[in-house]
Amino acid sequence: MKIFLTKSPYLIHLFQIIVLNTCSLVNVINAKKMTAKAEYILKIAGEIFAAQGFRRTTVREICKRCKVNLAAINYYFGDKEQLYLACLKYYQPLAAQKASFYFGVDPDAKPKEKLGTYIQNFIYRLLEEDRQTLFGKLLAHEFFEPTGALDTLIEESIKPSFSFLSLLAREVLGDNCPVKIVELCAMSIVGQCIYFRNAQPVIFRLRNKDKYSEEDIREIAEHIINFSLKAMDNYFTEQQA
Length: 241
Known about the structure:
It contains 12 helices and no strands. The protein is an all-alpha fold. The protein has a single domain (about 5-240), classed as Tetracycline Repressor, domain 2 (Orthogonal Bundle), CATH 1.10.357. It is elongated, with a radius of gyration of 19 Å. The two termini are about 20 Å apart. Mean pLDDT is about 85; it is low at about 1-30.
């Protein structure tokens, strides 16, 4: 059966994404415990987890940066894993403020414009350095260094966003394009974006940089958009030839 991306199912899918991504990952912090001190720990711990990943981050390092003792971590969060889950929960709505979970895509725009907008906002969420983009960075670590939170993240964030990206890819590829090819193209787009996040140590050394500038991020976004759209032009038709 052909899949047509009319405005009605499109908007329904956006609604599903918003609902799923505003769900709580876990009920980690008791409402009575959400004090200014607990929030401060979350902010600092989130920055460290986003920079180093879950496994390379130690509770001792978090305590040192926050200037608190281990007892404070145990009181508010229980252990390292619960603290990590609390960080995901804390930074998820902040990411939605930066760029909504449908990535600012206009349902009335042309297919290539929709896909371009998605890629642009996705790459900015991964590469920009501010608190509102930390959730994207935490997610990026899960792609190559998964934690116990991965299954929840897949259901509440990754799967809805990937399904949405696949819908946009189908619009560009055509309604008759097999699901397998649509998904592979969507995965290729995600792979390009994740590479520029996770390969930063190599990229910075190759390009003699210590961080991405605003211009760098813009150029990377434009490159992935142009590269992907050129690759997808007549891709399915050529596969059949």
